[in-house]
């Protein structure tokens, strides 16, 4: 029996994981949609602290997206998994950049006491490139989202092609529930 390219071989049969593919797909889609929404609106308009919180929320949502994608039994070497892992790493880096700026700003007095005012002045002057880097990385994240959204949408469409009527019903219900659940994250 040959397996078509659009249908990946099942890892498990008749297990809870298999039975909940529609729910895992819905959770993935809702988490990804909320992360995209946060990242595509004016995130750069927030304060450093707000941006750090939003990036942390997006990192959580991408982790949920990745975990749900893996649970929906997608092959681990698929382009969608690679995209989500890359997005997770870039968001983690972005959060580290913003947190570094916040830390330097908050602890400048303490650093000045320990390192001297001249050293701290140089450190604070070096913060500007971090702000520029954050903007460049955010542009890269947005470009990556444009690349990854069709991958996610195609995977969802392929999975829905295998859904039975009850799976479709459960998927629609889960999308609504998870969309509401994730709406509390971010701005």
Descriptive keywords:
187 residues; mainly alpha; 8 helices; 0% strand; elongated; disordered N terminus
What does this entry look like structurally?
The chain is an all-alpha fold. It has eight helices and no strands. It has helices at 16-19, 21-40, 48-71, 79-106, 108-115, 117-125, 127-162, 165-182. The chain starts with 15 loop residues before the first helix and ends in a 5-residue tail after the last helix. The model is unreliable at 1-6 (pLDDT under 50).
Rg calculated over all Cα atoms = 21 Å
Order of helices and strands: HHHHHHHH
Structural class: mainly alpha
Please report the number of helical segments. 8
Q: What percentage of amino acids are in beta strands?
A: under 5%
The residue fraction in helices comes out at over 70%
Task: Return residue spans where pLDDT drops below 50 for at least 5 consecutive residues.
Answer: 1-6
Instruction: Give the mean pLDDT.
Output: 84
- What would you call the quaternary organization? single chain
DSSP, total strands: 0
Distance between the termini: 50 Å
Please outline the major beta sheet: none
Backbone shape: elongated
SSE map:
Elements: H1 16-19, H2 21-40, H3 48-71, H4 79-106, H5 108-115, H6 117-125, H7 127-162, H8 165-182
Helix pairs in contact: 2-3, 2-7, 2-8, 3-4, 4-7, 5-6
């Amino acid at each position: 029996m040959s397996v078509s390219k659009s249908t990946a071989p099942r890892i498990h049969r008749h297990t809870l994981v298999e039975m909940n593919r529609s729910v895992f797909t819905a959770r993935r889609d809702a988490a990804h949609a909320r992360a995209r929404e946060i990242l595509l609106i004016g995130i750069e308009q927030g304060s450093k602290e707000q941006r750090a919180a939003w990036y942390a929320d997006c990192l959580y949502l991408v982790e949920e997206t990745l975990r749900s994608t893996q649970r929906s039994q997608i092959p681990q070497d698929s382009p969608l998994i690679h995209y989500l892992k890359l997005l997770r790493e870039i968001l983690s880096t972005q959060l580290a950049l913003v947190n570094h700026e916040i830390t330097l700003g908050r602890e400048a007095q303490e650093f000045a006491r320990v390192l001297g005012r001249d050293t701290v002045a140089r450190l604070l002057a070096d913060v500007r490139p971090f702000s520029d880097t954050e903007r460049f990385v955010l542009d890269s994240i947005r470009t990556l989202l444009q690349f990854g959204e069709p991958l996610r949408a195609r995977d969802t469409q392929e999975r829905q092609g295998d859904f039975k009527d009850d799976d479709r019903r459960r998927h629609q219900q889960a999308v609504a529930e998870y969309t509401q659940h994730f709406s509390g994250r971010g701005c």
